[in-house]
Amino acid sequence: MIIQINAMREEHLEQAFGLTQQLTWPHRLVDWRQALQLGEGVVAEQEGEVLGTASCWRWGSDYASLGLVIVADRAQGKGLGRQLMQTLLQKLEGYTVRLHATEMGMPLYAKLGFAITGGIAQHQCRELGEVDPIEPGPGQQLRLATPDDLELITVLDRQAHGQYRSNLFANLFDSAERILLLEEQGKAAGFACLRRFGHGYLIGPVICRDLPRAKVLISTLLAGLAGQFVRIDTDSGYGLGEWLNSQGLIIVDRGVTMVRGVPWQPDGMLAFGLMSQAMS
């Protein structure tokens, strides 16, 4: 029977969700819906059965991310992963594309022109203990961001990784629990988002200049989450991991950051917490 590569549509999401359940990935159906709303995807389909998926997100005119690349166990070895990837990469011609790879996926991505640029660590805790918030320093203050801060947050985010994600933040102002803004001398110096994802809560994106500021933002959000499942995905090179471990959020998995094109050089801001491994 012929396997077709088709555009992902709403009616495919139940089966896509089922594929992530088989892999024990934490994505909820609502997480899949958000992913499709913000981007686009393709499915490998045989007589109405979804055997594989891949999704991508265009963040402005130069940078994109790619993820949720899945092939069902019974369809492995047929080259579906490569077909799905190639279909999306044709759509992303001219973009610098970033993804986060498992060890199993790395060889395929390397053959498709992706190079390793770093690593990420997934930290989580099934039942968070009490966390004391770190007080802002002299001249710093924290406040809740509002939709009026959309462009400001978008600019800070872009400084960290080149992606222009205004549509993402418009979505998060509607769907996230809260977005916390750090100000210094009245000017924005970073932000952190708390939202529902998977088994509980996820903190990310977290964007700011350095590690002390990241700790202020993250600890303030953690302080209200005692007893909850909490996850943070962070860049392994930014030094946040040891502190997260001390707060009870231990490393449960690692991934590799790979880029096809010229990697962005951070411009005064760093991404200490990812939106998700797929959409970052």
Automatic annotation (TrEMBL):
Keywords: Transferase
Gene Ontology MF: a single term: acyltransferase activity, transferring groups other than amino-acyl groups
UniProt cross-references to InterPro entries, sorted A to Z: Acyl/Acetyltrans_Enzymes, Acyl_CoA_acyltransferase, GNAT_dom, YitH/HolE_GNAT
CDD domains registered for this protein in UniProt: NAT_SF
Pfam families: Acetyltransf_18, Acetyltransf_7
Gene3D superfamilies xrefs: 3.40.630.30, 3.40.630.90
N-acetyltransferase domain location: 3-135
Name under which the protein is recorded: Histone acetyltransferase
Species in which this protein is naturally found: Erwinia typographi
